[in-house]
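User: Teach me something about this protein's shape.
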Amino acid sequence: MAGSKLDIHGKESSRWDLVSLGEVMLRLDPGDYRIATARQFRVFEGGGEYNVARGLKRCFGLDTAVVTALADNPIGRLVEDLMYQGGVDQSHVRWAKYDGVGRTVRNGLNFTERGFGVRAAVGCSDRGNTAVSQLASGDIDWQRIFGTEGSRWFHTGGIFAALSATTPLVAAEAMDAARQHGTWISYDLNYRESLWKANGGKQEATRVNRELVRKVDVLIGNEEDFTAALGFEVENADEHLSQLDISSYQRMIERVVAEFPNVKIVGTTLRNAKTACVNDWSAIAWHDGTLYRSLERPDLEIYDRIGGGDSFCSGLIYGLLTGHDVQWAVECGAAHGALAMTTPGDVSMATLADVERVMKGGGARVAR
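Assistant: First, the predicted structure itself:
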């Protein structure tokens, strides 16, 4: 039911509203140019799992922390400085000794061009052998995080799980500890073909993700993830999922939930990219047999599409953590995602007032 409340323990017993686990990279943005022809880049921090924690802190004012690892050199310290601006607590960041040239450990770089018109956005990651990819079971004191400190919610995803053979084990270890202490667990499938290419391909991605999804409460995906990351076939497979009718999408989600009955909520964005700058945009969330859909925003103008899904996720989680019903939460997520794509970089620059205005159908008239 839309008015039902979820059994999430209160803040009085937890230091954190949410803890995320994932890689935080340095994003290099060539602006209006292409990566291969640029002569200067702007820098941002970003990473699928981190972006959710940052959105919850900077836009929604909740207390969040990130578990990650960085090589201790000037690039790592630049990422640290950018994270300070985001306000996400860094007390659980692990610093790896740098060898001088990056033979044994380094920091991830993510070159991303925004695209324009018929030229699609392009990402080129340079993240092999990074500090966070070398995390192994036993490296993080999860009992301290979820037991001593306490966190109401834990978030990680398929990007972190794809980084190495050990990172899925770290994610599973974190989920088990979170479950032990009554912490809600969300997982964004976030399938990236480039990350799995040298790590077992789609077959290994399916195996890893299916094991981890058995441990989660809230599953986030997009129109590709349920097929590529979980191995489900889709009705009318010759059509793009964003063009399927909602009833077909609901049947697919119900098949996922039937196989993974631990999943209580499924959330996803619906995007039809007409050009790099114009997308139809909305979102849905499934809960307890009912599919809730946000306001549809046809022909939404996009400045930078990267991070829109992460901001949807943080808005959805904010709604659920603050006791709102699922309909309100999916509207909040869709509005926050739409706003995040109006500014450069992976991370949201929106405020709660911005999100509430857009949820109410507010337009782009100048505010003075």
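Now, about its shape. The chain has one domain: 16-359. Residues 16-359 form a domain with the UDP-N-acetylmuramoyl-L-alanine:D-glutamate ligase fold (CATH 3.40.1190.20). If you'd like, I can walk through any region in more detail.
User: That's plenty for now, thanks!
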